[in-house]
Amino acid sequence: RDPVGTTSAATVTITGAAGQIGYATVFRAAAGALLGSETPVRLRLLEIPEAVRAAEGVAMELLDGAMPLLESVDVFDDPTAAFDGAEVGLLIGARPRSKGMERADLLSANASIFSVQGRAINEAAAPAFRAVVVGNPANTNALIAASHAPDVPAERFTALTRLDHHRAEAQLAIACGVSVNDVDGVAIWGNHSTSQYVDLTRATVRGRPAEEVLLEHGHDRRWIDEFFIPKVAKRGAEIIEVRGGSSVASAAHATLRHIRTWLRGTPEGSWASMAVPSTGIHGVPEGVVCSFPVTCSQGRYTIVEPWAIADFSRARIDRSVAELLAEREAVEALDLLGPRA
Ligand code: NAD
Ligand code: LMR
């Protein structure tokens, strides 16, 4: 059955289900925001032993919602049991950063989680399995999980940059005084980190080139480079500063949209941003889990091409890819990559 869940119930494993993003995700997933309002879901919640009781509380609340699409909910502390028969994996469980940390600082704290889960997925998940890694550093954690699951196609392991994509759409709409419904064609390239390249070269506002409309609002190319791109790339830190904790509901929303778009498709002529293993396209070395503009149809994504990349874009993409390669070297040095690597 491919794409997942179009005709019958789908099995979804959510890690870190008792955590903040997990809690914000499970109720919407059970209410149809993940797979649509026609598809029943079987939720399998994975937590560490210390948080299993809290996850059981989440499961109790799900039952108390009497949610028509929720076929079952089970709680696990064993990854292999949790991923048994999983068709979709939301890999959220990991430590979040706090004020003053960069996401890469989480590498050693979180990387081992994803080697264990990659092995469990390899052993137990359904053939249709697809995953989005949310736990940071998300791109490299997806690489680690895929490396430990050699029997699952590597392209099924993706990481979340949809939140950055949404942030770019929202900031563009604000700058042009329009609704987010009027903007299209933004793209996030590279790492889910401050090195990401927020690309407006193909973006449109009410069908017109975004850069032209921005200029009418007094925002030139320099403003894009010096204000807009850093605003989006540093938004995670800004949320931590202002809210006092890392983003939660916006991350949950982006996670649900990432999977929904992957399974149900992008609108004609439009794309979304997803971090996916590079095919070697656009000068990004093969296998690196890099954010690209992608189109989706019937459970498959395709990296957008051809896309003439201007010199200033090229340099920014290369800088973010260099950071991803450095993260890969760091996890190789920690011996965290599995048999596929
Ligand atoms: P949180 O601390 O509230 O919750 C994390 C949960 O994961 C906890 O309940 C913890 O017990 C659980 N957990 C830890 N190790 C686990 C394991 N091995 N198996 C299963 N569960 C495990 O954190 P949060 O705010 O929900 O954030 C989760 C992660 O998402 C963080 O790494 C954060 O940085 C990341 N994040 C990513 C994005 C993105 O756009 N990619 C956005 C926001 C947050
Ligand atoms: C975000 O982008 O909000 C998350 O990745 C959390 C963080 O650490 O920035």
UniProtKB/TrEMBL annotation:
EC number: 1.1.1.37
Domain of life of the organism encoding this protein: Bacteria
Chain sites annotated for binding substrate: 97, 103, 136, 167
Transmembrane segments: none
NCBIfam families in the record: MalateDH-SF1, PRK05442.1
Family of the protein in this entry: Belongs to the LDH/MDH superfamily. MDH type 2 family.
Known function: Catalyzes the reversible oxidation of malate to oxaloacetate.
Name the record gives this protein: Malate dehydrogenase
Taxonomic lineage of the native organism: Bacteria, Bacillati, Actinomycetota, Actinomycetes, Micrococcales
Gene from which this protein is expressed: mdh
